[in-house]
From TrEMBL:
<protein>
    <submittedName>
        <fullName>Aromatic amino acid aminotransferase</fullName>
    </submittedName>
</protein>
<dbReference type="InterPro" id="IPR004839">
    <property type="entry name" value="Aminotransferase_I/II_large"/>
</dbReference>
<dbReference type="InterPro" id="IPR015421">
    <property type="entry name" value="PyrdxlP-dep_Trfase_major"/>
</dbReference>
<dbReference type="Pfam" id="PF00155">
    <property type="entry name" value="Aminotran_1_2"/>
</dbReference>
<dbReference type="InterPro" id="IPR015422">
    <property type="entry name" value="PyrdxlP-dep_Trfase_small"/>
</dbReference>
<dbReference type="GO" id="GO:0004838">
    <property type="term" value="F:L-tyrosine-2-oxoglutarate transaminase activity"/>
</dbReference>
<dbReference type="GO" id="GO:0005829">
    <property type="term" value="C:cytosol"/>
</dbReference>
<keyword id="KW-0032">Aminotransferase</keyword>
<dbReference type="GO" id="GO:0004069">
    <property type="term" value="F:L-aspartate:2-oxoglutarate aminotransferase activity"/>
</dbReference>
<dbReference type="GO" id="GO:0042802">
    <property type="term" value="F:identical protein binding"/>
</dbReference>
<feature type="domain" description="Aminotransferase class I/classII large">
    <location>
        <begin position="27"/>
        <end position="389"/>
    </location>
</feature>
<comment type="subunit">
    <text>Homodimer.</text>
</comment>
<dbReference type="GO" id="GO:0033585">
    <property type="term" value="P:L-phenylalanine biosynthetic process from chorismate via phenylpyruvate"/>
</dbReference>
<dbReference type="InterPro" id="IPR015424">
    <property type="entry name" value="PyrdxlP-dep_Trfase"/>
</dbReference>
<dbReference type="GO" id="GO:0030170">
    <property type="term" value="F:pyridoxal phosphate binding"/>
</dbReference>
<comment type="similarity">
    <text>Belongs to the class-I pyridoxal-phosphate-dependent aminotransferase family.</text>
</comment>
<keyword id="KW-0663">Pyridoxal phosphate</keyword>
Amino acid sequence: MFETLKPQAPDKILSLMAQYKEDPRTTKIDLGVGVYKDASGLTPVMRAVKAAEHKLWQEQDTKTYTGLVGDPAFSDAMIKLVLGDAVPRNTVAAAATPGGTGAVRQAFELVQMANPKARVFVSDPTWPNHLSILKYLGIEAVPYRYFDSETRSVSFDAMIEDLKTATKDDVILLHGCCHNPTGANLTMDQWGEVIKVLQATGATPMIDIAYQGFGDGLDADAAGTRAVAAAVPECLIAASCSKNFGIYRERTGILMLVSANAEAQALNQGTLAFLNRQNFSFPPDHGARLVTMILTDDELRADWQAELEEVRLGMLNLRKQLAGELKRLSNSDRFDFLAEHRGMFSRLGTTPELVEKLRVDHGIYMVGDSRMNIAGLNENTIPVLARAIVDAGI
């Protein structure tokens, strides 16, 4: 049976990780993998997560299944974190998923189930797994212009021009904050213009928010998502807890469906439960329970938010240091965009050939499209990277 299988193209980031591991140079720098690292290169377990796990170990008396959509308390806590008071709680259907990727996959399957002819408008560029999943499911992906490689900022007029071609049968996929892979975000005024297009076309928005708290703060990072959810009848939101709680391996995510009204919410909630049953039955609970404990305990939440803010400010400081060093070495302001971008990633806007030159000549590993993980830097490696970028003629 399996002789008919064809080799699959290797994942570019995983291949890059393997190359990095095999590189014997002690001066090598890993800016490829999308995982937060502290100054020592460690992805730490957050203090509040440790405390919650200890409490859970002491108090948990069963490992039986949760419901098909996970613990309702997790849904309540995450809906409050992401949406605040933007929409009535009784209009939001929600289901826990294996990570943010699981939420994205379930959302695409839900779209396909609701309208097999639906197209999904996707930013150019976007997180590669968006495109991979859409292709696997046979859903047409329509790229819309997003990033200007010259200015390293959002190509907003072009974006709006492309989004206006969507119809009521289409889905428009947006990044809630900390755009991956570019780091270039919409302003609130720009979010307002996107909302006008959504209202005019009738297209359904889907928001992938994987980095809430990594950009400008928990509420500021969710402001665009909340504005969209409050302005349209229906909205899909895929949220991840991997980054802002540091629980990557626990695979903790959630899919939310903002419904037109409470009556529609009941149908949508049942559909989400059905989809979970078909794909993996009961979702993982350990990470979701930790998140629930943290978000509903004042002391744990305060400590989590304090540490998350330390992480956010640390990445902003790295951005400013890198932009400043590049300005000093190049005597140019062309790298100032690095301080303006938000989140873990920025896209240099250079060629794959120059990215390869950085790897070969300097042991600097980043994705071929020039996406680099700012969190992979520290005070010692910033001057090395800046010198390499300037020497390479980027």
